[in-house]
Amino acid sequence: MDNQIHNAIVSFIWGIADDCLRDVYVRGKYRDVILPMTVIRRLDAMLEDSKEAVLDMKKKLDAAKIDNQWPALCNTAGQAFCNASPFRLRDLTSRAKKQTLKADFEAYLDGFSPNVQEILEKFKFRNQIDTMIEADILGAVIEKFISPDINLSPKPVYKDDAQTIVKHPGLDNHGMGTIFEELIRKFNEDNNEEAGEHWTPRDVVELMADLVFMPIAAQIKDATYSCYDGACGTGGMLTVAQDRLLTLAQQQGKNVSIHLFGQEVNPETYAICKADMLLKGDGDQAEHISYGSTLSLDGNATRQFDFMLSNPPYGKSWKVDAEKMGGKKEILDTRFNAYLEGGEQLAMIPRTSDGQLLFLLNNVAKMKKDTPLGSRIAEVHNGSSIFTGDAGSGESNARRYMIENDLVEAIIALPENMFYNTGIGTFIWILSNRKEECRKGKIQLIDATAMKSPLRKNMGKKNCEFTPEIRREIVRIFMEMEQSEVSMIFDNREFGYWSVTVERPLRLHVYPDREIPAGTFKKADELAAVKNTLAEAAKTAPLDDWTTFAKATRLKAGVLKKIRPFITEKDPTAQPIDGEADVDLRDTENIPFTYEGGIDTFMRDEVLPYAPDAYVDEKKTQIGYEISFTKYFYKPVELRSMEDILESLKALERETDGMMAEIMEGIQ
């Protein structure tokens, strides 16, 4: 589409808000009218030529008393949707009375097929009708959208009856989709607080698409591929992925078709996504977008996909989902639970305050296992997913599962302030179950935090972007997989560790004469008998050896348990008690898998020289995984040289000498 025409249409529609809505809606609510009306007008324009045929078909179906008429009516319309009301949008502009306009407009909306009804419902567009009627702007809004100054129809508009001079060219599905995406972008940028939650900046999405598709570009075949986003928002990531794959296929001389799938929990963004699909002529694709929570109501539970790209919510509670799934401790969903060799369950359920890793695990569960390309995943997270969680936690177990199954190709650290509603650092995970030979058993870390270009004007908290040149450089670093200041390659084992509990024996000194509270035993004579027993044992048994002393008393274990707190004190010189550890001396050590000699050598070299009686409680040993970019890419601040510091001090001294002279002169 000609950029001038594209920009003119976008500007015209954007201007409708200022012309008609300014005094009725606050600026952040313009989208509640403009987006659904754009959808309605486009659908209306696409149905104009078939309107009479659809109405004739409806009469026949009514006469035949056929209930489910929509398949036949849509077929007659030649679209994935239709409108069976007696009205076109332009018919409504002649209504002089507000109530007549309202009734006919509602009847017009009611005439759309169920797939459009769902979009209108999720937009909550009918909630706007009363507001527009009361303000007497509905007619003006409709007139603006059917204005001869723009053309949202696929057919051209001519200046002359002979149809030789084009006034407005026809708008194909791709062009309409581009315009709708531009409107979404403008509304998102205009309302930055919400933008980051539902919309990922295009420069980040394009980088993700390149990282997913470029490594396998030469392997693309004449085939059908599927692309999925489990947190699809308005569908922008799916659209960019589709365009990138089609472009690469064309460059390779391949003919591919792409099926898009997604799921979205926010009703408005879900409506926008489905509407965008319909406006591009992708009626079937629109049916592949599921509504609801991906976590608790997976709309694609039985499907697997070739490519998956997502920007799930991070730092957002999933407690409601956990409750729907039976409670965090009762979740048995196979996406979030794995089994190790030997049958041990590996629960990968993170804390309910942050569910981002569950979206990544959801994608992992949908990887194809029986195709040459397998599946490739790109997903954006904050830093929490790479290091939060101790060994044995859900977060650590999730990392363990992905790394031990050799699924992680790379993790890329992005610059701060790349997103609209957060300035924190973010990371792109790249996963594949068909790693190249050189990547097997390895993970590449890329530090792209300094690879950015400043924006002329901030968009919310976003103050920088990836230019095409920067994007190509990051992809080059990824694909060449070489060590450098910004690229490091490690064996998978680098990120694993044993979390071991180091115990030291409990050592107690006995003081048999100490007071035992009267309430310790129900009967006074019991207490007296115990005291006598302790006194007798003290005559022969060592007081610095609780084990021997306890045996000498011949008291029952329950009695000894009651009295021990009152007659003993910890004493580092006392004999160790068999099988009992001193909880106050308990320590935890994280020992890297890469530590030469493992746990035994670590204990010998790092612990026993300082605590010879220490030992590992093997039953408590856990395996953990974490990835610390700071550890590998830390750049210490360069200290000033001594010469530089001395020169600064001398300069200050010269300045203060001059000041002191002036002060003294003033005093005198």
Q: What would you say this structure looks like, in words?
A:
The chain is an alpha+beta fold. It has 4 domains: 3-177, no CATH class; 191-499, Vaccinia Virus protein VP39 (Rossmann fold, 3-Layer(aba) Sandwich); 500-629, no CATH class; 640-668. The strands form 6 sheets. A 9-stranded mixed sheet has the order 5-4-3-6-9-11-10-12-15, with helices on both faces. The protein is elongated, with a radius of gyration of 35 Å.
Query: Are there runs of 5+ residues with pLDDT below 50, and where?
Result: none
First-last Cα distance:
83 Å
Number of helices: 25
The geometry reads as elongated
Q: Give the strand order, joined by hyphens, for the main sheet.
A: 5-4-3-6-9-11-10-12-15
CATH architecture of the largest domain: 3-Layer(aba) Sandwich
The CATH superfamily of the largest domain is identified as Vaccinia Virus protein VP39
From the alpha-carbon coordinates, what is the Rg to the nearest angstrom? 35 Å
Count the domains. 4
Number of strands: 22
